[in-house]
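Why does residue order matter? Because the sequence determines the fold. Keep that principle in mind as you read this record.
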Amino acid sequence: MEVNRRGFGALAAGAAASLFVPSTQPLRAGLVPVPGFESLPGAELVQPAVSHTVTFDPYSLIIDGTRVPIWSGEMHPFRLPSPQLWPDILQKLRANGYNTVCVYVAWNYHSSAPGVYDFTGVRDLGQFLTDAANAGLFVIVRPGPYINAEVDAGGFPGWMTTSTGTARTNNSTYLGHVDEWLTNVDAAIAQHQYTTGGGTVVLYQIENEYASHLTDGVGSAYMAHLYAKVRADGITVPLFHNDKGRNGDWIPGSFSTNGETGRYLYAFDGYPSPTSTPPDWGYFGSGGATGGSTASPSTPGYEAEFGGGWFDPWGGAEFSGQGYAGARSSRDPVYERRFYLTNLANGIKIHNVYMTFGGTSWGWLPAPVVYTSYDYGAAIDEARNQTSKLVPMKQIGLMLETVPDLGKLATGSATSASSSSVKVYHVTNPDTAAHFYFLRNDTTSDLFFTLPVTTSAGTLTVPASGSGIQLNGKDMKVVATGIKLGHRTLLYSTAQPMYQATIGSQDVAALVGRTGDPVEMMLPATSAPTVSVLAGSATSAYDAPNARLRINATLSGLIRILINYGDGGLPLLLLLADDTAGATLWRQPTASASGPVLVRGPALLRTATASGSTMQLTGDTTAAADLEAWVPTGLSTLTWNGTAVSTGTTTSGSLLASAQLPAPPTVTLPALGPWRYAAENPESATTFDDSTWKAANKTSSVSITPIPAGNPVLFADDYGYHYGDVWYRGHYTGTAGVTAISLSYSSGTVGELMAWLDGTPLGVHQQPTPTKSNDTTQTWAATATFAVPSALQGSGAHVLSVLVRPMGHSEDGGANDAHKAARGLTGAAFTGATPTMTWLITGGSADPVRGPMNNGGLYGERNGWHLPTFDDSTWSSVTFPRADTFQGVRWYRTTFTYNPPTGVDASIGLTLTDDSTRAYRMQIFLNGWNLGQYINNVGPQHTFVLPTGILQPQASNTLALAVLASGTTPAGPGTVSLTLLGSVLGGV
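Structure:
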């Protein structure tokens, strides 16, 4: 069964300066690095900053005349609000085989009010695009207007909730807002397009999963307007829309492009269940409009989003409380091989993995459907650690990058393996006669079989010897014929190609598989070559009558085989690697040198630069590691992270460090405390001065939520309070006999309301916890009824104080203005009497540094208690664990200094633990930044990432915790501590 990530949406100044760290590698004047392919094997392609071409045909994207399969990973810069860390993720993507990064741009992140747009500091989109180019990545930009993305209102800014225009239509008011947004965001993007030589943006999305108004003319007019606007803004790269599923919506020709042809692509999304059989959404599928890429046969197969994980709702029911560890285990490396290789076999040549780095939905960024972490089970986790899921991604990405035959594939003749349990996809390059056999095992048993393959020597049955091709249960691999390994042509190999290049005076080819896999390779050879097994175990046999060399081995570690042909050509170094050994191989192009470098050993290779006779390498270690490098001719020495490395030359033609690279030193984290404490919510007291609050007396609203009869508009958005907590105070007098008060509110999942009458707590109501990720589609409206104590039923003056915690605006996936569902209090009713109420309201305001979604309307937030500059010297001292029972808000603050060892990049988290029966929630502020919300009695998240840049090393950091408790149980905090989530020696 497939789950659609968007389906649920159809219903329904101090810290800033240290955060902006410009790239240390600005684009060289006049030059733009071209990632993802090489003009010759091993050569870095650098072009003058002049006009370039990005086109396509039915097979692939074509960049400057060269076919480039796009292997892309999704990340969102707004989910990592530390620009100094952007290069870290981007370099990890490139090192692990991705040639492209795909990014949403969230309108609400950049606009706090109509006409107000911020692209500076943590919002500097231009800096991110420069960082991507410097990392050697192409970029796909997706600026909306609507992005969904499990963010508040699907990316629409809060102020749009009060706009009269119907969103995602051709309504003139809405389009006016859209044009204003696009004018601003396109100005940032246009100068970074590859077509104009200023950067590496190659594709631009004009709308996101737009599945509405398909036949009434509204949708086509809307899409045509977006297309024309983007082109008018100077966007010259090809445009696309991604279909929500496979419906054939908005294929080329379905709306006006003002006469422009051949510049628009159809794309689609897919999130199949990991327990299902990988679907055929292309060459081998059902075909037609609902068949995936077949909906648009004139454009290349484009999977704009394919599940690299899945989101988890409040309560964690999606993964049985495991959190994103459950997502990562269910969509593991074997899942990636089976599902992603199936896509490639089906002709998907633009492939984007959503997410590859998920990051954090900090502050009030998340929609009600997710909690703070957006780890997503991605290949790079929220703490920026590389996970095992990167191993197959690197294998596939490097194969696409260095086997150009994969850029143009058509279906080959139907082929069957000797085992009927093996699914065989046969595709071939019609220009080069290379053949690829994508082999999938959908059973749980390991299979051994033979396979007839087409080669330049005719049809051969492989393997020619041994027990057969091995394919483990629920796994997939590729057998290739007729591809180049450097200057040599492969007849066939049962190990999957990973990398090939000419490095120095030899050709180098790496092929991979599972540990224990039997491997057979066949290469043409006009005379008996000299075969030397340099490491590991392998055998060779020369077939003189047929002029073929056969290599056999069983994968274990890294097997090295050097073949000298004796024909005057370059020798071939074969590196046969199991997954573990393959994970330690890294390639980089080398600026100012005649070819790439291949490195073995460290946890990451970030950059490689030639200077004179020295190859300067930078990267990371997570443990002591070898350093071995195959380098271009003329280079004889190495440095690692700026330090000279003593090396010797190996029989493999590489430079090997005499000593291992060191492991990172131990990172010691400070204990937190002492803590200071202050009680809050004076708004609940009768004597509180609310004279500066806004009168909540409007009588009409554009919200899709009806106004209850007899009530004014109480919706928070109508009074400019779009994010976080909102307070109400209702005054009435002269009415006796009110025995109960019913308060209706709308909040999103697990939202909360609490009420006081004349300072006396009436009680708390909490919305339900979702049961699954698809159980989040409601508006989550409820009515809480509270009994009025007899002592408060008199006819004097009364004050009803109400605090509502909304959990974000609904997404507008159904183009039905769902984001305009009310948030906050919606109405009040009374039992026993009907007093006349006068309502006042207050909430949060936009932080000038951190943006509109950082803080809400708690008293402490309105008065700066979360900021590092706030003086808490008069607060009381306190120790944890706390066990207070109260209804309302309490604040806790401490400072700490974190001193990581020199050269160490550590990822630090804040871990909260307590008895899960205690009903309270907490906002976490670090140096004024709202880094998440913890709900102790809901979960599942207990650890919150504190990203470097917001967390200041070698400096004082202020941690503030705002606890909102129900009063039904004792409330925490319980144990609060820093946690080391990962560390490397190196980093950015």
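Residues 172-190 form the longest helix (19 residues).
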